[in-house]
Here is the input.
Amino acid sequence: AQTVTQSQPEMSVQEAETVTLSCTYDTSESDYYLFWYKQPPSRQMILVIRQEAYKQQNATENRFSVNFQKAAKSFSLKISDSQLGDAAMYFCAYQDGSQFYFGTGTSLTVIP
Amino acid sequence: DAGVIQSPRHEVTEMGQEVTLRCKPISGHDYLFWYRQTMMRGLELLIYFNNNVPIDDSGMPEDRFSAKMPNASFSTLKIQPSEPRDSAVYFCASSPPGPAWYNEQFFGPGTRLTVL
Here is the structure.
């Protein structure tokens, strides 16, 4: 069974607007970490943001923030003031003591 | 630091041939991961090492795949014999000491493998 689900294969956003990418996961663990990685056309995977499950406060990194809903097992990424350089494939990832899973990715297009 | 280094960047081979992919992790990192990326299946973890020891190889698709890490600065992923369905981008990643599950993984640029 898929542990990490990204239900939006493709998304688009107008430059300077806000977009939210969704991610849900399945786990019986109480302690784990969640990540969003960005993969631009260059293929280089880059960490965007990280969330620790035991922290209730949502992580924020500049224009990137998450909405972490632990009970719902939801971990969405919000990109504010979208820029052309944000165009990429975005992967949600789950890690616990022994498991490492990535979602299938969401391709984000930024429209000038 | 140069980051995670993978070679070759591109590999084209014929079915039945042996393929060896190489990875040099970031110095000081003691976890190393091999992933395969395809359009259909996304990113799949094949195997990971801690301190050069394979910890979980349950993602290795079949016996044709093998991975080694003879020392802290080098790992190989070998496919023998290769098949067209092995065509994919193979990523190597490393992460720093400490529980791997809360550390960021640093990815290499990937090797695009095409098996004809």
Q: What stands out?
A: The radius of gyration of chain B is 13 Å. Chain B touches chain A at residues 33, 35, 41-45, 48, 56, 89, 91, 93, 99-102, 104-105, 107, 109-110 (CB under 8 Å).
